[in-house]
Write a structure and sequence with these properties.
The chain is mainly beta. The chain contains one helix and eleven strands; from the N terminus they run αβββββββββββ.
């Protein structure tokens, strides 16, 4: 009887430790990752290496198009993927945890911005979580209400409106941060065609090289072009 009681108590203790260990493992993993982490520093072990950022915009809805001020307001998701060499771990050492969901404010993020944006919507500011994987991969998909200047082309028909958004790093050249297309096709599967004045006719994206008189380095841009057609009611 004494042996049976000891066995039962031992099983209960092991179960309690395993349960507590699972909780502590996530806490310990965060402590392990962020003990000496600096989110202001590019996360590369070799400073000469560029961080490749795969980016895309997923349109959700056209909110408005001010023809007088020539400003487009569009709800969207801005998808960004990159690798953080300082945030890696072996899942076997942390109870097989392969992914963490963390506030984006705790990690380094690429300073991709909308160059054609108005003053109050230059960078995405949504408080969405980022996914951090054990191999250092980071996925962040913030909601972004884009407000972009869209000058009308002189020869363009009045029933159509083209808007070209330009996305790029605000401070890094391509040798430090290299933006790439996440996909050559624009994902329209989540688009809601609810604007009563304008209908989205097409959306295209491409990557271009850009050089400025001030600098010899390349500053790549991702172009996102949409064509709207006026609805006649």
């Amino acid at each position: 009887m004494l042996l049976l009681l000891s066995a039962i108590l031992g099983c209960l203790a092991s179960s309690s430790i395993a349960s507590e260990g699972r909780i502590l493992t996530e806490r310990d993993l965060r402590r392990y990752l962020f003990a000496d982490y600096d989110k202001l520093v590019r996360p590369v072990t070799d400073p000469s290496n560029a961080i490749v950022v795969y980016a895309s915009i997923t349109p959700i809805a056209i909110k408005s198009l001010d023809e007088n001020d020539q400003v487009l307001v569009m709800d969207s998701w801005m998808k960004m993927k990159w690798n953080d060499e300082y945030l890696k771990w072996d899942p076997k050492e942390f109870n097989n945890i392969t992914v963490l969901r963390i506030p984006h404010t705790e990690i380094w993020k690429p300073d991709l911005s909308i160059y054609t944006s108005t003053d109050d919507s230059l960078f995405p500011t949504s408080n969405t979580l980022a996914l951090l994987y054990s191999d250092g991969s980071v996925l962040w998909v913030p909601f972004f209400q884009i407000k972009s200047r869209c000058p009308r082309q002189k020869k363009q028909e009045m029933s159509y409106f083209d808007c070209n958004l330009r996305i790029g790093s605000w401070t890094y050249s391509s040798d430090l941060l290299n933006p790439q297309l996440d996909s050559t096709e624009v994902d329209l599967s989540n688009f809601q065609d609810t604007n009563i004045k304008w209908k989205l006719m097409s959306a295209k994206t491409n990557r271009v090289s850009k050089y400025y008189p001030c600098c010899v380095e390349e500053y790549p841009l991702i172009n996102f072009n949409i064509t709207l057609k006026r609805r006649f009611i």
